[in-house]
Write a structure and sequence with these properties.
single chain, about 230 residues, alpha/beta, Rossmann fold, Arc Repressor Mutant, subunit A, 2 domains, 5-stranded parallel sheet, 4-stranded antiparallel sheet, CheY-like_superfamily, WalR-like
């Protein structure tokens, strides 16, 4: 049974969310503040976090920042409609998905199941990816370049995994979005993907302005260019 940490301070929402999540076979703990959430997180193992953005003593971003210092556990943000401008910030910080209030409980459950499926698919790999001086230790969720661990957000990590698992293959933008986010990436526009590509390049390329590893195929998508055929 997957353990889920729900962080929400709206009592009108908590009961319905908790009941619906448990009814679908998940075990859930509820926290109403940043402090309470971090205490629970540090003392238990969770498979997924659901974070409301606005909390009495801070924000869901505060929790996400702390968690991402040591874990790539999946994170879904709950955001009010007038907070949607913060979505890109949340995804860049390491969030994996978001859902806008008001929402249907069935939609949230679908997002939870889909995100857990994607996460399990990544973690089931038992080998390492290695090319262009970059090694991904899939079981440890760790990326190493020239002996140095790279600090990647969860989305950057998944994007790099996807590219390196498909060496020298052109992946369309639609294909990438469908693999990283459900519903064919309908809630993330192409500009957001471009931002992630640019930031990933800044961490893996020797000269991000003249990339040699992560190539743009104009009008189509992107390709992981294996130099010297050294993909393992």
């Amino acid at each position: 049974m997957n353990n889920i940490l729900l962080v929400e301070d709206d009592l009108n929402l908590i009961d319905g969310l908790e009941y619906s999540i448990q009814k679908n076979g998940f075990h859930v703990h509820v926290a109403r503040t940043v402090e309470e959430a971090l205490t629970l997180y540090e003392n238990r193992k969770y498979d997924l976090l659901i974070l409301d953005l606005t909390l009495p003593d801070g924000t869901g971003f505060d929790i996400c920042k702390r968690v991402r210092q040591s874990s790539v556990v999946p994170i879904i943000f709950l955001t009010a409609s007038d907070e949607e401008v913060n979505v890109v910030m949340g995804l860049d910080m390491g969030g994996d998905d978001y859902i806008t209030k008001p929402f249907k409980l069935n939609e949230l459950i679908s997002r939870i199941k889909a995100l857990l499926r994607r996460t399990n698919a990544f973690q089931e790999e038992t080998y390492k990816l290695n090319s262009n001086g970059i090694r991904i230790e899939l079981l440890n969720n760790r990326v190493i370049k020239n002996g140095r661990i790279l600090e990647l957000t969860a989305v950057e990590y998944k994007l790099l995994c996807l590219l390196m698992k498909n060496p020298n293959i052109v992946l369309t933008r639609e294909k990438i979005l469908s693999k990283l986010w459900d519903d064919n990436g309908d809630f993330v526009d192409n500009n957001t993907l471009s931002v992630y590509i640019r930031r990933l390049r800044s961490k893996i390329e020797e000269d991000p302005n003249h990339p040699r590893l992560l190539l743009t195929i104009r009008g189509i998508g992107y390709k992981w260019n294996v130099i010297g055929g050294n993909n393992i």
